Amino acid sequence: MIFSIQTVATSRLAYYNYNDMPHLPTHKVLLKLAKSAAKKIDLNTPSNLSKIDFEKIDENLTPNMRALRLTMSIADQLFSMGVAASDVVHSALAITNTYCKRPVHIDISYTLLTISQDRGINKEPLTMIRTITTRTTNYQTIQSLQELAKMIRSRQITLSDAEKQLKKILESSKSYSRWMVYLSDGGIGAGISILYTGSIPIIVLSFLIGFLTSWILDKLDRIGVPSFFIQVIAAAGVTVIAAVLTNFINNYEALDIISYINPTLIAISGIVLLVAGMMIVGALQDAIDEYYLTATARILKVIMKTGGIVLGVTIGLYIAKKMNTNFATTPDGLALTSITYQYIGAAITAACFALGNHSRLTGIILSGVVGVAGYYCSIVFINNGMEAIPASGIAACAVGLSSTVISRIWRIPSVATISAGIIPLVPGITLYNGLMQVVQNSPGTALFDQGMGTLLRAFMIAITIAAGASFGNIIGRPMRRKLIKLHNKLPSLSNLSIHKQNKS
What we know:
Helix content: 55-70%
Shape: globular
Low-confidence stretches: 1-20
Strand order of the largest sheet: 1-2-3
Order of helices and strands: HHHHEEEHHHHHHHHHHHHHHHH
Radius of gyration: 34 Å
């Protein structure tokens, strides 16, 4: 463009006599000629080009696209809060089968949710993809979303009303404060310690350690620290606290209250909160349901989190060694307390887990009851000569079956009571114990081989728990439907009163 203007301006100098503008300098003459040429010449646009009227694209979505978007939002919320992949796909397909004419394929790969629809040979296929981000588990929100999906499946609500209901659920989601979550995690630590002791000082200190650990985890997560380093920092902190407590006990043995404190149990009560026992159970459940990609990703996450614990405990032990303090980091010498205290510990652990995941009061109470029932089943089978691995699987099956049946009666999500009920069965301490034996001993030694056997045992227990919970859920669904049909056939109290009045 500049070259063209300069060329035109230079050519126009041939028509002017420089002597005609003696009062202007040469550079100003050239500038004036260039401006004159730019005003008269249009180098790009033809003079006869007319404007084209483009049709505006309508911003309104078709009902089919709205139904897919609704399905995507509900599935995203459910899976990001820990609902099993098979249950999410089941709920999502129920929505699309109700609102969409064409069949829909739904795929979940841990961090990606994909919905595809083949609309025939005359229309382009539709594919929607959404990245799944982990959210805080909220059993009240899960229950509301599952009830909405059930209403859609039974054709009790229109698409427009379903969209409004979803917006209302997400905007008015109820949750407890962070301090309540810290208290619930402290309760889990106290419940774990009650399984091994009835000492009030140890229970109180275990509660405080669990509370502090939960607070550290939340603060580090809110500032964006990766989960691996969160595990390292928290595990190292708990180990150092146990080392300081051990040093304090050694220096003040004369105090009566100090003599009842076991630093090893206190450290384990805090570190078990970090052990991804429930996560490995969930990963194995996805593998059983044949969602192998999701299961693989979750197992890798379990490995990374567990590696963070091992590194953190190793750092804490190194600091303790510099403090000239030694204490046992494995619960080999610990024995379970009386059966009454074990039931109390199981109930507290299950109920606090439900509380920490924002369950309603009814769900918290039922979770504690289911947790005790599952733990009771495992104790009964073990006392009758059965090994811990099959006993844990049978107990988990009982938890899954009972949770699925009662979920509709008390209007709580079955995933809430199942997850809380199997918490006392999850081999968190066994997994931690095996890791410490492997890390602290050289390969080829007896203790190293014992640690590998302990890890394998923990893995087998987790598999049986996942399989038992999944199988109990599967056989519980048809039983629940039959109970609902039987309940619907029974005459209501109002009908009975009317019948008596007419008869009189």
